[in-house]
Amino acid sequence: MKPVKVGLLGLGTVGTGVVRIVEGHQEDLSNQVGSPIEIAQILVKDRAKARNISVDPSKLTEDPWDIVRNPGIDVIVEVMGGVALTKEYILEALERGKHVVTANKDLMAMHGQEILAKARDKGCDVLYEASVAGGIPIIRTLIEGFSSDRITKIMGIVNGTTNYILTKMSQEGAAYADVLKEAQELGYAEADPTSDVEGLDAARKMTILSSLGFRANVSLDNVSAKGISGVTQEDIQYAKRLGYEVKLLGIAERQDDTISVSVQPTMIKRSHPIASVNGVFNAVYVHGEAVGETMFYGAGAGELPTATSIVADLVAVIKNMKLGVNGRQAQLSYNVMKLKTDEQIASKFFLLLHVEDRAGVLAQIAQVFSNCDVSIESVMQPSTPNQSSTEIIIITHEASKAAMNQVLQAFESQNSIRKIKSVYRVEG
Ligand SMILES: NC(=O)c1ccc[n+]([C@@H]2O[C@H](COP(=O)([O-])OP(=O)(O)OC[C@H]3O[C@@H](n4cnc5c(N)ncnc54)[C@H](OP(=O)(O)O)[C@@H]3O)[C@@H](O)[C@H]2O)c1
User: Fold this and answer.
1) How crowded is the C-beta side of 4, counted as CA atoms within 13 Å?
2) Which co-factors does it depend on (predicted)?
3) pLDDT tens digit string along 93-105?
4) Is 107 annotated as a binding residue?
């Protein structure tokens, strides 16, 4: 039977996994799709580079157009990364009627709508399961599994590097800078970790998840992002004393036709299932009006977990080819949503204040909260003997972000408050 021919753009970590799975599971895969799958050509930057997989050297090329313009190639699998060149290759491949599978969250978060529109016009599939939470089939779940429900909340640990760092800080009491260095040595963090630790990578993934979950056009600019570089060991220890873990959470919420999407270090109640997701693992919690709470857990990256999602997408594309229904599932956003204002975004908050240690200060603080219409759930004052200042920890009831900002502004002008040390969103 005639094989389906795949052009693979990239033979790095993920590309190698794709070759291994397509070759290792060939019999099973061809039984599922009704024909063999052949990786016919592979784009690399350097053909002479030593590789930890053996491939037929005649399949390797350094010229992307060899593959993208090859009429014999049916499907392009893009695992080279980057945005500008990759977008150019993918649009050209779609123009020529080739289907595309990609693991590229940067590309899909920034140009997903344009690429999906092109795919629809050309009757092609573009599938990108591996772009968020590597081995967890969350994209297919949001598109298909929840097609009958209205999703109201998505909370994700979608960046393994930051989850590894926060887990180590929590379990071993280590300082942020030390754990980051160790993560870099182990290859869990990049030499330039900015995109991970400042929450940008998670923001891109939340752009994709919220667009699909809310069936709305969410752009990267709509997602506010704060990373973990300001999280201290002190914050983590106080969180633990109060029954919380600190996690970098992407949180997307919908109410009627308003949404908010953000990424921030969050204190999450230890009893919430996402609080126990540790190390480099990822998890996505989804709340639907009808289904209630669900959660999906697994490897967020790595050669074989990521390749599993890519090859599953490849199988879906080939099944569509056999049925002649490619391009029917391009997910274009049909809901018009407004971004929530700060008055509409509500959560509980944790505050750690450094204050003057004298009678009446607590009453002043309580007055500020009351003036701003924020009610307090609990107050803790750890003992700090023989000092002129002390720490106060406050957890609020649910309050709007706008009201909380008013509280913080009022504290700035109070002499008795020496420093606002930390502010966290609280969930669970
Ligand atoms: N690694 C993961 O666990 C993971 C998980 C989910 C998603 N992803 C996404 O998957 C993609 C690939 O990641 P990766 O970790 O496999 O990357 P990688 O190990 O750096 O591999 C990139 C591959 O693409 C080739 N390449 C890069 N730029 C090229 C260019 N301009 N022309 C020709 N070839 C080029 C490289 O060629 P050479 O081999 O010759 O250098 C290499 O084979 C990225 O979009 C990433 O975000 C990765």
Assistant:
1) 29
2) a metal cation
3) 999 999 999 999 9
4) no
Residue with CA at minimum distance from ligand 1 atom 4: 301
| Residue from 8, 14, 313 whose mutation best tests the ligand 1 pocket (most atoms within 8 A of CB) | 14
- Give the architecture-level CATH label for domain 138-299: 2-Layer Sandwich (3.30)
Identify the band that residue 386 occupies on the pLDDT scale cut at 50, 70 and 90: low
Tokens 């599994």 label which residue?
145
User: Are the C-beta atoms of 51 and 11 separated by less than 8 Å?
Assistant: yes
In the structure encoding, which two tokens stand for residue 124, read together? 């092609």
In the chain, CATH 3.30.360.10 sits at 138-299
DSSP conformation class of 248: E
- CATH number for the region 346-426 comes to 3.30.70.260
Closest ligand 1 atom number to CA of residue 303: 3
Class of domain 4-134+303-323: alpha beta
Contact 334, 46 (CB under 8 A): no
Residue ranges matching CATH 3.40.50.720 in the chain? 4-134+303-323
Q: Are 64 and 78 in contact (CB under 8 A)?
A: no
Q: Is 266 annotated as a binding residue?
A: no
